[in-house]
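Work Package 4 report. The design task specified in the project plan requires that, given a folded chain encoded as structure tokens, an amino acid be chosen for each position. We show below one input record used in the internal validation round.
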């Protein structure tokens, strides 16, 4: 099945309509996050960022942090990560880095490993996009250590991709192939993907 941005946006709009009827901040926050993501994924970055801003405004850590166990990561930290990407796409690298750092602060404060993995992933990409390779490398190191601790194959593939990207961008593309292919990492990720 191929990606269909029109369907994604329509489902997000329907979710917002249902959330408006409830008038509870949790569903409204999630609805604005969903609309923001659907707009980002379909190229409407300005309006997408506005919805992500609204989601952050509605986010109340005391009320919404427990949702991390339901959604896999803290909604506030995850939304900041996407907002960081939106700022970068709009040409505001400093605002992008500020949101990435804020997301990292929130994730570390929470102490929820899945949230930290999610945010480390986005923050590393933000630094890569901004050309901050040393900072990105430090985040990928932290990401890799947490991946080993949690045993996450899914996040392991992301970490491997980030490490390869950094090696290629810093003139060490051959190291990326030798380091990852030599350890069998690619074969193990491909084998898991076939299951």
């Amino acid at each position: 099945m191929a990606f269909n941005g029109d369907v994604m946006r329509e489902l997000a709009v329907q979710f917002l309509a249902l959330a408006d009827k409830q008038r509870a901040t949790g569903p409204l926050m999630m609805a604005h996050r969903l609309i923001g993501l659907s707009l980002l994924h379909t190229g409407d970055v300005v309006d997408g960022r506005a919805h992500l801003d609204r989601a952050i405004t509605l986010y109340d850590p005391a009320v919404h942090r427990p949702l991390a166990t339901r959604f896999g990561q803290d909604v506030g930290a995850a939304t900041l990560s996407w907002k960081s990407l939106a700022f970068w796409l709009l040409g505001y690298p400093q605002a992008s880095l500020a949101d990435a750092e804020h997301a990292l602060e929130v994730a570390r404060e929470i102490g929820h490993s899945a949230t930290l993995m999610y945010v480390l992933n986005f923050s590393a990409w933000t630094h890569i996009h901004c050309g901050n390779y040393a900072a990105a490398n430090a985040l990928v190191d932290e990401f890799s250590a947490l991946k080993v601790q949690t045993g996450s194959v899914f996040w392991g593939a992301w970490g491997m991709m980030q490490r390869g990207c950094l090696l290629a961008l810093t003139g060490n593309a051959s190291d990326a192939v030798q380091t990852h292919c030599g350890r069998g990492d690619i074969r193990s990720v491909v084998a898991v993907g076939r299951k």
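Confidence is low (pLDDT under 50) at residues 181-195. Validation will be extended to a larger panel in the next phase.
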